[in-house]
Amino acid sequence: MVNEVCLRTLDLERPWLMEQYQSRGGYQVLKQVLSEKRAPEEIIEEVKKSGLRGRGGAGFPTGLKWSFISRNAPGQKYVVCNSDEGEPGTFKDRDILRYNPHQLIEGMILAGYAIGATRGYNYIRGEFWEPYERFEQALREAREAGFLGENLLGSGFDFELHTHLGGGAYICGEETALLESIEGKKGQPRYKPPFPAHFGLYGRPTIINNTESLASIPMILEKGGEWFADIGVKNSGGSKLFSISGNIKNPGVFEIPMGTPFSELLEMAGGMKDGSKIKAVIPGGSSAPVIPGDQMMDLTMDYDSIASAGSMLGSGAVIVLDDTNCMVKILERMSYFYHEESCGQCTPCREGTGWLYRVVHRIESGMGRQEDLDLLDDVADKISGKTICALGDAAAMPVQGMLRHYRDEFQYHIDHKRCMVGAG
Amino acid sequence: MTDKLVTIEVNGQQLQAEAGTMLIEVTDAAGINIPRFCYHKKLSVAANCRMCLVEVEKVPKPLPACATPVNDGMKVFTRSPKALAAQKGTMEFLLINHPLDCPICDQGGECELQDVAIGYGRDLSRYSEGKRVVADKNIGPLIATDMTRCIHCTRCVRFGEEIAGIREMGATGRGEHMVIGTYIEKSVDSELSGNVIDLCPVGALTSKPFRFNARAWELTQVEAIAPHDSLGSNLNLHLRGNKVMRVHPKDNESINETWISDRDRFSYEGLYSSDRLTSPMLKKGGEWKTVSWEMALEMAASSLKEIGDGDQIGTLLSPTSTLEELYLAQKLMRGLGCNNIDSRLRQGDFRLDANQKSVQWLGTGLAEIDQMQAALVVGGNIRKEQPILAHRLRKAALAGAKLHYLNPIRLDLNHNGEQDVCTPSEMVGRLVAVAKAAGVRASGGAASLLKSAKTDAFAKQAADDLKAADGAMVLLGGLAQAHPDYALLYTIAAALAKTTGAQLSILPAAANSVGAQLAGAVPHLQAGGTSAEHAGLDSVKMLKTPRKGYLLMGVEPGRDFWNGSLSMSALQSADMVVAISAFRSPELEACADILLPMAIFTETSGTYVNAEGRWQQSRGAARPQGESRPAWKILRVLGNLTDQPDFDYVDSQQIHDEIKQLCASSTLDNQQAELQDLEQQLNSDALLRGGDTPLYACDALVRRATALQQTLDAGSETICLHPQEAARLGLDDSDTALVKQNGNQIDLPLQLDERIPQGCVWISTGLARTSTLGQPFGEVTVEKA
Hints:
heterodimer; A: alpha/beta; 5-stranded mixed β-sheet; 11 strands; globular; B: 7-stranded mixed β-sheet; 24 helices
């Protein structure tokens, strides 16, 4: 069960082309839905059944999200795809855009049909030039084939889809900052509620889903929600794309069933590089708390298993670290990232991320003080759960995770003013 | 949101509130304090400071009270360990990069950050890194910046977007590098800009004129009424000893809400102008000599009596005077047989005076303007005439009201609205077009006016919107009142209002323009606001047919008059001019023979009747400067010295009560009968002058407020004209041009401005040099100097 859903065309030559996609049955389900005029409620029900949870990192059930929209309310509604993929370690949506853009387009049209939206936006990360061009090419093909525009395939349903290229800010991956950015404003998250389902793009009801989530829709509707759910395990339906990187032999993207043991995933990626020893794994993008390697080897890749170890599956970005890595150095780099990417809107994140970085930097530079460890924990705690969006939590969690499992390394740095491990 | 009442529990206390109300509003109303910085009751919710985090039962994370709607059964803890930890955490974050320079910060002692830090801050900082420093910006003469102190609450940003209607401040940069500023360094020019000083919870934005002048704890606060525009905004004067150090708004939801205009905030600087008149003076042989009050008053009384024929005297009173002053002035002069009394000094057309039997006013309550669904503003740049009223009109526009403007200049509107821009002489025709589109009917000469009018899209839309609205007004602004055909504009507007069911609204020019009518300080009405037994001459006729003597109160020749040059020549040629004034000016000294120093609004008690007819009393906050006296006392003694009965007042309250009694049955009423047949005075294809009175040129006090005079709204002594008009005249913007009007001429630099209609040049009135020209609307010639 590898590459069954979002990457089902990966084995083909130039799989991003319309004809290739259609050769694997692409757009069939859209045609069927439109010609049979399948009830939107039934589509939403099918998505609910699939157990699909938001693949961007938060893991919110997609079908449930769709059902929040009152689809018969008058006025414009929007489908927005979040292809901003900015979480360090994550590079899976890039491959969907590069290799299977048509499936995303089909998924967005189906989502639009389900919630009664006639317009969609795909917000693509600014640095993704090749994926952007592939997606644009796919849009042109889809438009020519009559899958976009007015009165799709004579069904009376209109759907138009636009690309919006981001400007390179991590925060614009936060759904409401992304909406602000599409509107031409400074990318800053909105306070919620109201949620986008009620007050979204241009103040209209909007669903906003991750690329992978939307690209999963055609297969779910084609083969049924149950089929999808059965690929995975309880609470974690379907398969999922994992971007695995770090000190491993073959970093890359793997679409595997939820619940696959981490050890199998590691094996697919060729195992540890040069036979080095696994030290730790950051299982769901840089904001997910670190898990020690030994513990990770016993876990499976699904929401519940990872959560049981005090971390999260997040976007499925698995960063594998071997024992040559200094955890202080790693945390310093991550803290610098969140400090740089905080939007500055709300106080704890604006002020706290810089403070975190400076303290970690101080420890890493051999100028740490004994009280710094408690200070780090305390500052992280004061950010966590107090901010408008999740960036504050994202900045706090790695700090908390590192201190939980590798406090001794930090202590060593303070005491000896150098690294415990050889590298630094 | 529903009207449903819900019960919530805050710290164990049961509270009732409408479902959906934000928690902080409910706790504020109940007197439960939750610390906050970004929340402000008049601005949108930002929820960015995170200071108001509270614990809500069954919610794992603390929630911001400003953005949490209440629902039934909600249990809130504002001071639980969890809530306090969150609040203290935020406080610590806010302080790590704050300079803590309270000893040298103007906000010290009245700083929200300082106050909240006492309750929620640590006594020692755990942050040992270098603090953020932000370069200061120069954003103009009114607001001082210390952006290092900024805590990014964005109140100033939201104020610009939501209240002032121009986005002047914004946030640039990300994270710690986020900076509040103007992006490109420029001045903040909103006429309401000073309100950001009050909004700023820290010392990032402070008052530039007040800077380093006093500490909050040295000041005493006295209430007052703003003396400039017709709203009567409520003020708090802040004094140290006898000196007004600054002015703040006092909340009054039905007038100024929590705002005041920059004019009301910064005009106090004029109080201490170096040309304050501080002792009585007499002109002898062309030389000014300081004399005793006794001598000055006796001279004034005897001089006025000596003229003998009361009709040979003209009485010109500033409409910014108090009701008591206006009343006593007219009582004194009527007692001397003089009925030539006027306070409408910037109006030029009084042909309707004879028909006007009641007091003119706004025609509606100020708060009702927010609810208007449509309005046609005729000849009014409301934003630059009466800013707080414009704010209310804007609120109506944001709520969907259809606003239409007919003006001799294109306005910079801060809301949606249709504009019809025409030359001054076309205004009558365009307004008739709206009347015609609305179906106004008339007989006689007026009928031909209607017949010749051409209705266009603007006229039709304006007429339709006025008719369709539930609550509409036709508002005659300052530019209309200064128009040579004001009477004609008025009668058309009245007929239009009558036909469409709209309210006819007159924008009273100054703080006591309505009061002056009630006090009888106009030629056609007597005290009580009823028709005068003996109507006198209006302010223009008094000057066109010069009198032997004049009594002036609070007015400056040239600057305060519809026709500046006419006022100078008439007053200079008079035998005797007695001026009660707070200031000396070269023009006044050239005209007057006796100068009697009067106290200004902060130094005298008195009443102001605002645009909506609301009586508001203000007590003197400071002792009058030097030997100056409240004008009511001066007038009272003049009454005694001219042997008039019933002039033995002991305080201003007694005068107030007397007027109140006279006004017991007076009514405010603008309604006019049918469209009247009046000849159009300004009907010319020649080059016409148009002219406004700039925001900060309207009265003697404002003209001396130094910081306001450095702003854009102080106006400039230039000739503005459309580029194509300039090309036609063979001029370009590097030229200086000679402008001639009514035999007077001055040279002024030229400025190209596409807002000016072609066939017209724009020269503001009320400025030092332009006051030597004639009326604001009339024929002029312009040539290269």
